[in-house]
Specification:
5-stranded parallel β-sheet; two-stranded parallel ribbon; alpha/beta; about 5% strand; about 50% helix
Protein backbone atom coordinates (compact mmCIF):
# COMPACT_ATOMS: atom_id res chain seq x y z
CA UNK A 1 0.00 0.00 0.00
CA UNK A 2 1.31 3.45 -0.90
CA UNK A 3 2.28 5.84 1.83
CA UNK A 4 -0.30 8.25 0.47
CA UNK A 5 -3.23 5.85 0.08
CA UNK A 6 -6.34 7.31 1.67
CA UNK A 7 -7.05 5.18 4.71
CA UNK A 8 -10.41 6.35 5.99
CA UNK A 9 -11.79 5.05 9.26
CA UNK A 10 -14.26 2.42 7.99
CA UNK A 11 -14.21 0.38 11.18
CA UNK A 12 -17.37 1.73 12.73
CA UNK A 13 -19.61 1.24 9.68
CA UNK A 14 -17.99 -1.90 8.28
CA UNK A 15 -20.20 -4.90 8.99
CA UNK A 16 -17.30 -7.33 8.99
CA UNK A 17 -15.37 -5.21 11.49
CA UNK A 18 -18.50 -4.73 13.58
CA UNK A 19 -18.75 -8.43 14.23
CA UNK A 20 -15.23 -8.67 15.63
CA UNK A 21 -15.09 -5.38 17.51
CA UNK A 22 -16.15 -5.04 21.16
CA UNK A 23 -19.59 -3.54 21.68
CA UNK A 24 -18.12 -0.35 23.17
CA UNK A 25 -16.06 0.20 20.02
CA UNK A 26 -18.99 -0.44 17.70
CA UNK A 27 -21.15 1.98 19.66
CA UNK A 28 -18.62 4.80 19.66
CA UNK A 29 -20.58 7.96 18.75
CA UNK A 30 -20.21 9.03 15.12
CA UNK A 31 -21.87 12.42 15.41
CA UNK A 32 -22.39 15.21 17.87
CA UNK A 33 -25.99 14.08 18.39
CA UNK A 34 -24.80 10.66 19.58
CA UNK A 35 -22.09 12.03 21.87
CA UNK A 36 -22.87 11.75 25.58
CA UNK A 37 -21.86 14.19 28.30
CA UNK A 38 -19.70 17.33 28.25
CA UNK A 39 -22.71 19.58 27.76
CA UNK A 40 -20.61 22.54 28.87
CA UNK A 41 -18.54 22.08 25.68
CA UNK A 42 -20.79 20.57 23.03
CA UNK A 43 -24.24 21.60 24.24
CA UNK A 44 -26.37 23.85 22.08
CA UNK A 45 -24.71 27.25 21.72
CA UNK A 46 -21.51 26.24 23.55
CA UNK A 47 -18.11 27.21 22.17
CA UNK A 48 -16.96 23.83 20.83
CA UNK A 49 -20.40 23.13 19.39
CA UNK A 50 -20.32 26.45 17.50
CA UNK A 51 -16.81 25.74 16.20
CA UNK A 52 -17.88 22.32 14.92
CA UNK A 53 -21.04 23.65 13.29
CA UNK A 54 -19.05 26.38 11.53
CA UNK A 55 -16.40 23.91 10.37
CA UNK A 56 -13.70 26.25 11.66
CA UNK A 57 -11.64 24.13 14.02
CA UNK A 58 -8.26 25.23 15.33
CA UNK A 59 -5.82 23.08 17.25
CA UNK A 60 -7.23 21.83 20.56
CA UNK A 61 -6.07 20.23 23.78
CA UNK A 62 -8.70 18.03 25.44
CA UNK A 63 -7.92 17.68 29.13
CA UNK A 64 -9.79 15.35 31.46
CA UNK A 65 -9.81 12.09 33.43
CA UNK A 66 -9.66 8.67 31.76
CA UNK A 67 -12.90 7.54 30.05
CA UNK A 68 -14.32 11.07 29.84
CA UNK A 69 -14.62 10.86 26.04
CA UNK A 70 -11.52 12.64 24.73
CA UNK A 71 -10.77 10.16 21.94
CA UNK A 72 -14.42 9.83 21.02
CA UNK A 73 -14.87 13.60 20.82
CA UNK A 74 -11.83 13.86 18.55
CA UNK A 75 -13.38 11.23 16.21
CA UNK A 76 -16.69 13.10 16.24
CA UNK A 77 -15.05 16.42 15.37
CA UNK A 78 -13.20 14.91 12.40
CA UNK A 79 -16.42 13.37 11.08
CA UNK A 80 -18.50 16.50 11.60
CA UNK A 81 -16.08 18.67 9.60
CA UNK A 82 -15.27 15.89 7.09
CA UNK A 83 -11.54 15.83 7.84
CA UNK A 84 -9.00 13.03 7.57
CA UNK A 85 -8.23 11.51 10.95
CA UNK A 86 -4.74 10.39 11.93
CA UNK A 87 -3.79 8.95 15.32
CA UNK A 88 -0.48 8.98 17.16
CA UNK A 89 -0.04 7.47 20.60
CA UNK A 90 2.58 9.45 22.49
CA UNK A 91 3.59 6.38 24.48
CA UNK A 92 4.50 4.35 21.38
CA UNK A 93 5.15 6.92 18.67
CA UNK A 94 7.52 9.84 18.21
CA UNK A 95 8.91 12.31 15.66
CA UNK A 96 9.42 9.59 13.02
CA UNK A 97 5.71 8.79 12.99
CA UNK A 98 4.87 12.50 13.04
CA UNK A 99 6.89 13.02 9.84
CA UNK A 100 4.92 10.25 8.10
CA UNK A 101 1.62 11.86 9.10
CA UNK A 102 2.78 15.28 7.88
CA UNK A 103 3.81 13.87 4.48
CA UNK A 104 0.43 12.21 4.06
CA UNK A 105 -1.33 15.41 5.14
CA UNK A 106 0.61 17.49 2.61
CA UNK A 107 -0.25 15.05 -0.19
CA UNK A 108 -3.93 14.85 0.71
CA UNK A 109 -4.27 18.61 0.95
CA UNK A 110 -2.88 19.02 -2.58
CA UNK A 111 -4.80 16.07 -4.02
CA UNK A 112 -8.20 16.47 -2.38
CA UNK A 113 -8.08 19.71 -0.39
CA UNK A 114 -9.09 17.76 2.73
CA UNK A 115 -7.94 18.94 6.14
CA UNK A 116 -6.04 16.48 8.34
CA UNK A 117 -6.73 16.24 12.05
CA UNK A 118 -3.89 14.66 14.01
CA UNK A 119 -5.01 13.16 17.28
CA UNK A 120 -2.12 12.72 19.74
CA UNK A 121 -3.25 10.54 22.61
CA UNK A 122 -1.51 11.06 25.97
CA UNK A 123 0.34 14.03 24.51
CA UNK A 124 1.81 14.82 27.95
CA UNK A 125 4.08 11.79 27.46
CA UNK A 126 6.03 13.61 24.76
CA UNK A 127 9.14 15.47 25.88
CA UNK A 128 9.88 19.11 25.04
CA UNK A 129 11.68 18.31 21.76
CA UNK A 130 8.81 16.12 20.56
CA UNK A 131 6.21 18.73 21.46
CA UNK A 132 8.26 21.44 19.76
CA UNK A 133 8.34 19.32 16.59
CA UNK A 134 4.59 19.93 16.23
CA UNK A 135 4.90 23.73 16.15
CA UNK A 136 5.98 24.39 12.52
CA UNK A 137 3.23 22.11 11.19
CA UNK A 138 0.58 23.88 13.27
CA UNK A 139 1.89 27.22 12.04
CA UNK A 140 1.76 26.11 8.39
CA UNK A 141 -1.75 24.70 8.76
CA UNK A 142 -0.77 21.33 7.31
CA UNK A 143 -2.30 19.59 10.31
CA UNK A 144 -4.82 20.52 12.98
CA UNK A 145 -3.84 19.07 16.33
CA UNK A 146 -6.19 17.54 18.85
CA UNK A 147 -4.15 16.50 21.86
CA UNK A 148 -5.56 14.42 24.71
CA UNK A 149 -4.12 14.43 28.21
CA UNK A 150 -5.13 13.29 31.67
CA UNK A 151 -2.59 15.61 33.28
CA UNK A 152 -2.84 19.34 33.84
CA UNK A 153 -1.59 20.78 30.54
CA UNK A 154 -0.15 23.85 32.25
CA UNK A 155 2.31 21.51 33.96
CA UNK A 156 2.86 18.89 31.26
CA UNK A 157 2.84 20.83 27.96
CA UNK A 158 5.32 23.43 26.72
CA UNK A 159 4.16 27.05 26.57
CA UNK A 160 4.63 27.49 22.79
CA UNK A 161 2.28 24.56 22.16
CA UNK A 162 -0.30 25.80 24.65
CA UNK A 163 -0.28 29.24 23.05
CA UNK A 164 -1.22 27.70 19.70
CA UNK A 165 -4.08 25.57 21.03
CA UNK A 166 -7.41 26.14 22.66
CA UNK A 167 -7.83 24.24 25.90
CA UNK A 168 -11.06 22.39 26.71
CA UNK A 169 -11.55 20.54 30.00
CA UNK A 170 -13.73 17.44 30.04
CA UNK A 171 -15.48 16.29 33.20
CA UNK A 172 -16.11 12.71 34.37
CA UNK A 173 -19.17 11.15 32.78
CA UNK A 174 -22.18 10.71 35.04
CA UNK A 175 -24.35 7.71 35.80
CA UNK A 176 -27.07 9.31 33.67
CA UNK A 177 -24.70 9.45 30.68
CA UNK A 178 -24.01 5.73 31.06
CA UNK A 179 -27.74 4.93 31.33
CA UNK A 180 -28.42 6.88 28.12
CA UNK A 181 -25.73 4.93 26.29
CA UNK A 182 -27.13 1.61 27.53
CA UNK A 183 -30.55 2.62 26.16
CA UNK A 184 -29.03 3.53 22.79
CA UNK A 185 -27.17 0.21 22.67
CA UNK A 186 -30.30 -1.79 23.44
CA UNK A 187 -32.25 -0.10 20.63
CA UNK A 188 -29.53 -0.15 17.94
CA UNK A 189 -29.89 -3.36 15.91
CA UNK A 190 -26.95 -2.60 13.59
CA UNK A 191 -24.10 -1.65 15.90
CA UNK A 192 -25.67 -2.47 19.25
CA UNK A 193 -27.65 -5.31 20.79
CA UNK A 194 -31.00 -4.45 19.28
CA UNK A 195 -30.91 -7.61 17.17
CA UNK A 196 -31.27 -9.62 20.39
CA UNK A 197 -34.52 -9.60 22.33
CA UNK A 198 -33.21 -8.60 25.74
CA UNK A 199 -35.18 -8.18 28.94
CA UNK A 200 -32.88 -6.00 31.04
CA UNK A 201 -34.31 -5.53 34.51
CA UNK A 202 -34.13 -2.03 36.03
CA UNK A 203 -31.95 -3.38 38.87
CA UNK A 204 -29.47 -4.91 36.42
CA UNK A 205 -29.36 -1.78 34.31
CA UNK A 206 -28.74 0.35 37.38
CA UNK A 207 -25.96 -2.03 38.49
CA UNK A 208 -24.16 -1.69 35.14
CA UNK A 209 -24.33 2.11 35.36
CA UNK A 210 -23.35 2.28 39.04
CA UNK A 211 -20.40 -0.07 38.87
CA UNK A 212 -19.04 1.40 35.64
CA UNK A 213 -18.00 4.50 37.58
CA UNK A 214 -18.67 6.81 34.63
CA UNK A 215 -16.79 4.51 32.21
CA UNK A 216 -19.18 3.80 29.32
CA UNK A 217 -16.74 1.29 27.82
CA UNK A 218 -16.77 -0.71 31.03
CA UNK A 219 -20.56 -0.74 31.20
CA UNK A 220 -21.12 -1.75 27.57
CA UNK A 221 -18.51 -4.49 27.62
CA UNK A 222 -20.12 -5.96 30.75
CA UNK A 223 -23.55 -5.69 29.13
CA UNK A 224 -22.25 -7.53 26.05
CA UNK A 225 -20.81 -10.32 28.18
CA UNK A 226 -24.15 -10.71 29.96
CA UNK A 227 -26.16 -10.68 26.73
CA UNK A 228 -23.99 -13.21 24.87
CA UNK A 229 -23.31 -15.59 27.75
CA UNK A 230 -26.82 -15.86 29.15
CA UNK A 231 -28.84 -18.80 27.76
CA UNK A 232 -31.91 -17.81 25.78
CA UNK A 233 -35.40 -18.53 27.05
CA UNK A 234 -37.80 -20.76 25.11
CA UNK A 235 -39.14 -17.72 23.27
CA UNK A 236 -35.62 -16.74 22.16
CA UNK A 237 -35.30 -13.79 24.54
CA UNK A 238 -32.48 -13.15 26.97
CA UNK A 239 -33.29 -11.98 30.47
CA UNK A 240 -30.51 -10.14 32.30
CA UNK A 241 -31.21 -10.03 36.02
CA UNK A 242 -29.35 -8.26 38.81
CA UNK A 243 -27.53 -11.49 39.63
CA UNK A 244 -26.27 -11.83 36.04
CA UNK A 245 -25.25 -8.16 35.99
CA UNK A 246 -23.33 -8.63 39.23
CA UNK A 247 -21.46 -11.57 37.72
CA UNK A 248 -20.63 -9.55 34.59
CA UNK A 249 -19.22 -6.53 36.43
CA UNK A 250 -18.14 -7.51 39.93
CA UNK A 251 -15.79 -4.70 40.96
CA UNK A 252 -16.91 -1.11 41.05
CA UNK A 253 -14.76 1.08 38.82
CA UNK A 254 -13.03 3.83 40.80
CA UNK A 255 -12.26 7.00 38.87
CA UNK A 256 -8.68 7.48 39.89
CA UNK A 257 -5.46 8.00 37.97
CA UNK A 258 -2.40 7.38 40.09
CA UNK A 259 -0.26 9.71 38.00
CA UNK A 260 -2.68 12.38 36.82
CA UNK A 261 -4.59 15.22 38.40
CA UNK A 262 -6.99 12.85 40.19
CA UNK A 263 -3.99 11.56 42.15
CA UNK A 264 -3.31 15.05 43.49
CA UNK A 265 -6.99 15.96 43.93
CA UNK A 266 -7.67 12.89 46.08
CA UNK A 267 -4.47 13.39 48.07
CA UNK A 268 -5.40 17.04 48.63
CA UNK A 269 -8.89 16.09 49.82
CA UNK A 270 -7.34 13.50 52.15
CA UNK A 271 -4.89 15.99 53.71
CA UNK A 272 -7.48 18.76 54.05
CA UNK A 273 -9.95 16.38 55.69
CA UNK A 274 -7.37 15.38 58.32
CA UNK A 275 -6.47 19.05 58.82
CA UNK A 276 -10.15 19.80 59.36
CA UNK A 277 -10.36 16.95 61.91
CA UNK A 278 -13.00 15.17 59.82
CA UNK A 279 -12.16 11.54 60.50
CA UNK A 280 -14.86 10.07 58.25
CA UNK A 281 -13.87 12.18 55.24
CA UNK A 282 -10.18 11.41 55.78
CA UNK A 283 -10.90 7.66 55.85
CA UNK A 284 -13.11 8.02 52.77
CA UNK A 285 -10.51 9.74 50.58
CA UNK A 286 -7.78 7.43 51.81
CA UNK A 287 -9.85 4.39 50.83
CA UNK A 288 -10.69 6.00 47.47
CA UNK A 289 -6.98 6.23 46.73
CA UNK A 290 -6.33 2.67 47.86
CA UNK A 291 -9.21 1.28 45.79
CA UNK A 292 -7.80 3.15 42.79
CA UNK A 293 -4.50 1.34 43.20
CA UNK A 294 -2.51 3.96 45.12
CA UNK A 295 0.71 2.82 46.78
CA UNK A 296 0.05 2.70 50.56
CA UNK A 297 3.58 3.98 51.12
CA UNK A 298 2.66 7.21 49.32
CA UNK A 299 -0.20 7.66 51.79
CA UNK A 300 2.11 6.99 54.73
CA UNK A 301 4.60 9.56 53.40
CA UNK A 302 1.83 12.15 53.19
CA UNK A 303 0.75 11.34 56.76
CA UNK A 304 4.34 11.57 58.01
CA UNK A 305 4.62 15.07 56.55
CA UNK A 306 1.22 15.95 58.01
CA UNK A 307 2.36 14.78 61.46
CA UNK A 308 5.01 17.49 61.51
CA UNK A 309 3.37 20.16 59.36
CA UNK A 310 -0.18 20.14 60.72
CA UNK A 311 -0.07 18.36 64.09
CA UNK A 312 3.45 19.43 64.86
CA UNK A 313 4.20 20.58 68.38
CA UNK A 314 0.58 20.11 69.49
CA UNK A 315 1.48 16.42 69.72
CA UNK A 316 5.14 15.77 68.87
CA UNK A 317 4.54 12.02 69.20
CA UNK A 318 2.36 12.00 66.07
CA UNK A 319 5.48 11.34 64.00
CA UNK A 320 6.24 8.28 66.12
CA UNK A 321 2.68 6.95 65.68
CA UNK A 322 2.80 7.29 61.89
CA UNK A 323 6.30 5.84 61.64
CA UNK A 324 5.35 2.87 63.82
CA UNK A 325 2.17 2.31 61.82
CA UNK A 326 4.13 2.20 58.58
CA UNK A 327 6.70 -0.20 60.04
CA UNK A 328 3.88 -2.46 61.21
CA UNK A 329 2.24 -2.25 57.78
CA UNK A 330 5.47 -3.33 56.06
CA UNK A 331 5.75 -6.34 58.37
CA UNK A 332 2.17 -7.54 57.88
CA UNK A 333 1.02 -6.43 54.42
CA UNK A 334 -2.59 -6.49 53.25
CA UNK A 335 -5.39 -6.92 54.20
CA UNK A 336 -4.37 -6.50 57.85
CA UNK A 337 -2.38 -3.44 56.76
CA UNK A 338 -5.64 -1.51 56.52
CA UNK A 339 -5.68 -1.36 60.31
CA UNK A 340 -2.38 0.50 60.45
CA UNK A 341 -3.40 2.92 57.72
CA UNK A 342 -6.62 3.62 59.60
CA UNK A 343 -4.74 3.87 62.93
CA UNK A 344 -2.48 6.64 61.64
CA UNK A 345 -5.27 8.41 59.75
CA UNK A 346 -7.67 8.50 62.71
CA UNK A 347 -4.93 9.55 65.14
CA UNK A 348 -3.85 12.47 62.95
CA UNK A 349 -7.44 13.55 62.27
CA UNK A 350 -8.31 13.69 65.97
CA UNK A 351 -4.99 15.13 67.16
CA UNK A 352 -4.78 18.77 68.24
CA UNK A 353 -3.39 20.86 65.41
CA UNK A 354 -0.50 23.30 65.15
CA UNK A 355 1.42 24.56 62.14
CA UNK A 356 4.06 26.38 64.19
CA UNK A 357 6.83 24.24 62.64
CA UNK A 358 6.46 26.36 59.50
CA UNK A 359 8.34 29.08 61.39
CA UNK A 360 11.46 27.54 59.86
CA UNK A 361 10.44 29.04 56.51
CA UNK A 362 10.34 32.52 58.05
CA UNK A 363 13.85 31.99 59.39
CA UNK A 364 14.98 30.67 56.02
CA UNK A 365 13.55 33.73 54.29
CA UNK A 366 15.43 35.99 56.70
CA UNK A 367 18.72 34.28 55.89
CA UNK A 368 18.10 34.24 52.15
CA UNK A 369 17.21 37.93 52.21
CA UNK A 370 19.88 39.31 54.55
CA UNK A 371 22.50 36.57 54.81
CA UNK A 372 23.81 34.96 57.98
CA UNK A 373 24.93 37.23 60.79
CA UNK A 374 28.11 36.78 62.81
CA UNK A 375 28.13 34.17 65.53
CA UNK A 376 28.29 35.98 68.91
CA UNK A 377 31.83 35.51 70.33
CA UNK A 378 30.69 33.68 73.46
CA UNK A 379 28.90 31.06 71.34
CA UNK A 380 31.89 30.19 69.19
CA UNK A 381 33.79 26.93 69.58
CA UNK A 382 35.75 27.09 72.84
CA UNK A 383 38.84 25.39 71.39
CA UNK A 384 39.04 27.91 68.58
CA UNK A 385 38.46 30.78 71.01
CA UNK A 386 41.23 29.47 73.26
CA UNK A 387 43.73 29.40 70.38
CA UNK A 388 42.77 32.91 69.25
CA UNK A 389 43.16 34.14 72.83
CA UNK A 390 46.57 32.49 73.14
CA UNK A 391 48.11 33.71 69.89
CA UNK A 392 46.55 37.18 69.82
CA UNK A 393 46.88 37.73 73.55
CA UNK A 394 43.25 38.75 73.98
CA UNK A 395 40.46 37.73 76.33
CA UNK A 396 39.00 34.25 75.74
CA UNK A 397 35.44 34.97 74.59
CA UNK A 398 34.28 31.50 75.67
CA UNK A 399 34.77 32.55 79.28
CA UNK A 400 31.75 34.81 78.84
CA UNK A 401 29.50 31.89 77.94
CA UNK A 402 26.99 31.06 80.67
CA UNK A 403 26.26 27.35 81.09
CA UNK A 404 22.43 27.14 81.60
CA UNK A 405 22.58 23.99 83.75
CA UNK A 406 24.40 25.94 86.43
CA UNK A 407 21.43 28.27 86.92
CA UNK A 408 17.95 27.96 88.41
CA UNK A 409 15.47 26.23 86.15
CA UNK A 410 18.43 25.40 83.86
CA UNK A 411 18.05 28.77 82.16
CA UNK A 412 20.00 32.02 82.09
CA UNK A 413 19.41 35.23 80.20
CA UNK A 414 21.92 35.25 77.36
CA UNK A 415 22.18 36.43 73.74
CA UNK A 416 22.08 33.64 71.15
CA UNK A 417 21.22 35.47 67.92
CA UNK A 418 23.58 37.77 65.99
CA UNK A 419 23.60 41.34 67.33
CA UNK A 420 21.80 42.54 64.20
CA UNK A 421 18.80 40.32 65.06
CA UNK A 422 18.57 41.04 68.76
CA UNK A 423 14.97 40.68 69.95
CA UNK A 424 13.82 39.05 66.70
CA UNK A 425 11.25 36.24 67.00
CA UNK A 426 9.87 33.85 64.38
CA UNK A 427 8.34 30.99 66.35
CA UNK A 428 4.87 31.99 67.51
CA UNK A 429 3.72 28.80 69.19
CA UNK A 430 0.29 27.22 69.26
CA UNK A 431 -2.20 26.88 72.08
CA UNK A 432 -3.44 23.35 71.38
CA UNK A 433 -2.43 20.06 72.97
CA UNK A 434 1.06 19.61 74.38
CA UNK A 435 2.25 22.80 72.74
CA UNK A 436 0.17 24.86 75.16
CA UNK A 437 2.51 23.81 77.99
CA UNK A 438 5.57 24.49 75.84
CA UNK A 439 4.23 27.90 74.88
CA UNK A 440 3.62 28.71 78.54
CA UNK A 441 7.28 27.98 79.28
CA UNK A 442 8.36 30.07 76.29
CA UNK A 443 6.32 33.05 77.45
CA UNK A 444 7.85 32.77 80.94
CA UNK A 445 11.32 32.80 79.38
CA UNK A 446 10.46 35.85 77.30
CA UNK A 447 9.23 37.70 80.40
CA UNK A 448 12.48 36.96 82.23
CA UNK A 449 14.44 38.30 79.26
CA UNK A 450 12.59 41.59 79.60
CA UNK A 451 13.37 41.95 83.28
Amino acid sequence: MSLFDNQEDEGIEGKENNESQPLATRMRPRSLDEFKGQEHLVGEGKMLNRMIQSGVIGSLILYGPPSSGKTTLAHVISREIDARFEVINAVLDGIKELRVVVKKAEYQKKATGKKTILFVDEIHRWNKAQQDALLPHLESGIITLIGATTENPFYSLVSPLLSRCQLFELYPLTKENVLEMIDDTMSDDVRGLGYIEIDLTPEAKNHFAEYAGGDIRNALNALEIAALSTPKNEDGSVKITLEIAQQSIQKRSVRYDGTGDEHYHYASAFIKSMRGSDTDAALYWMCAMLEGGEDPNFIFRRMLIFASEDVGMADPYAITVVHSSQESFLKTGMPEGFYFLAHACIFLSLSPKSNSTNSIFDVRFEIQKNGVGDVPPHLKDKTANKLVSKYLDIENASENYKYPHQYDHHWVNQIYLPDSLKGESWYKGGTEGREAALLKRLNEIRKRKEQ
